[in-house]
Amino acid sequence: MKKQRAIRNYIILSILLLVCFVFSFVSFKIPTTVNNFAGFINGIYRGTDFNNGVTATYTVSHTDNYENDESATLAAKARVEKLISAKYAEFSVEMLDDNKIKIVIPRLEEDTTISSYDLVNYITFTTTEVTDSNRETFEAKFTGKHISGSRYFSNNGQFGALVEFTEEGKEVLLEMANGLSETSTSTLYIYQNADWTSVLIRISIDKSSLTTIANSKQLFVSDVSILPTKDDAVNFANKIASGMLNIDMETENGESICSANFGGSASLIAGLIVLAVILITAALLWARYGQLSLAMIMSQLCFVAMSIILLPLFSAIQMSYVGVIGIIFAYAITLIGNIAYVERARDEFAAGKKLLAGFKSAYVKSVISNVDMYVITFVTSVIVALLGMGAIKTIASVISLLLIPSAITTLLINRGMVKWYLDINPTKYKKIKFEKGAEADEEN
Fold it and tell me: Is the model's pLDDT at 388 over the cut of 80?
């Protein structure tokens, strides 16, 4: 009975794996909807190694805060890298000239664009609306140099940004307040470029409220219609903080689409690399464990299937060649955990225990070492993913995510697979290339 149930379980799991891998590649229109299913593989977010990117070149204009264009451009480049790295694992910020920066981000969606929140711009606070009629004569009195800090802040459950001003900024705001009417409501305009053509936000104020803001040297922006989510509030706070540099970035030719770094065949090559790793692993497992390797190979394939389903759910992980390294590392961790269990059983059997008893004892002991391995690896990868940048961040992010299916595979699935095999073959240890210990009394 156990043997029949184990064979049935293997057949069911094989069918499920086959379906998963078929759906990883096929695409079709979802019935009764206008949506298409593109396949799990195509749903994985890809960086500029495997996919087209969005690029634009910006001219940087410096102010008196900097000695020359080059020093201003370096400051802008460092700030832009910090902002973009919060959204994209794969990106490029390149200094082309003393006053030019080229930005490349992965084209994750059809409408992906370089956000104004990711750029350093010249920030101006004013109660005077700048129009075509007064643009030539308008003089910015309150700029980024009057801001001492800007950060995300939550108050009574409202998402917002807290902007703090310098003592000089306080005096300029008081001067603005004195120019307002005592009875009417006015508007505080915050512009985000040097020619005052782009309004970042409009805030309704009166003389009393602007005076209070000035004296407190703080402005808390939290209107739900303006900043509805935490991400909006964080982006806004970062934008104002970027304005403290007093640098302006403008692009003349707008954005364009650039090709994948390694060409159209890059994804295929990466897939072949992963396939080669799987096949080599299967061959080595067969050479070491004989029939039992079938259970271990199917366990590894379960990890691959779960990873393919899981990766498309997280846009923060954009796959690149270094991301493939992260996949292979997580695959290796899974393999190490699976081998640790079987090797422990080999030792128990060689020490004289019966085959089934050896596997039962080995599982308990291997769980302890495997849990230690996963905890240490997970904590390390999360820390690196949070603090790292570029390739290291990508690898750590992939590992952090895929350790979840890896742990499930090692601690549960592989255990079940091996148990099913032992239900089919409970005594013939030579078929799994085990060596009988001196006290073992199992039949061949």
Answer: no
Q: Could you count the other beta carbons within 10 Å of the beta carbon of residue 300?
A: 23
Count of CB atoms situated within 10 Å of the CB of 191: 24
Is residue 36 helix, strand or coil? strand
- Count Cβ atoms within 10 A of the Cβ of residue 390 and give its class: 0-12 exposed, 13-18 middle, 19 or more buried: middle
What is the rounded distance in angstroms from the CA atom of residue 212 to the CA atom of residue 173?
10
- 363-382: per-residue pLDDT in tens? 998 999 999 999 999 999 99
Domain ranges of the chain: 2-42+264-432, 53-258
Instruction: Give residue 44's pLDDT.
Output: 86
Q: Which residue matches tokens 């001067």?
A: 175
- Indicate the DSSP class of residue 134: T
Give the pLDDT confidence of 348-366 residue by residue, as tens digits.
Answer: 888 888 888 889 999 998 9
Cβ neighbours of residue 332 under 8 Å, at least 6 residues apart?
none
Q: What is the mean pLDDT of the segment spanning 164-168?
A: 94
d(CA 341, CA 409): 12
Q: What burial letters (b/e) apply to 154-171, b meaning 16+ CB within 10 Å?
A: eeeeebbbbbebeeebbe
Query: Taking CA 134 as the corner, what is the angle to CA 131 and CA 137, rounded to the nearest 5 degrees?
Result: 140
Provide CB contacts within 8 A for 420, sequence distance 6+: 6, 9, 10, 295
Q: Which CATH code fits 2-42+264-432? A: 1.20.1640.10
Task: Say which range, 83-92, 98-107, 179-188, 399-408, has the weakest mean pLDDT.
Answer: 83-92
Tell me the Ramachandran region of residue 77: left when phi exceeds 0, alpha when psi lies from -120 to 50, beta otherwise.
alpha
Which residues is 94 bridged to in the sheet? Answer: 102
* Res 439: pLDDT: 52
Question: Which CA distances in Å does 135 have to 128, 142, 186, 195, 201?
Answer: 11, 16, 19, 8, 18
Distance of CA 172 to the CA centre of its chain: 41
How far lies 277's CA from each of 273, 280, 406, in Å? 6, 5, 16
**Can you read off the two tokens belonging to residue 33?**
């909807």
Kindly state the tokens that stand for 283.
């061959």
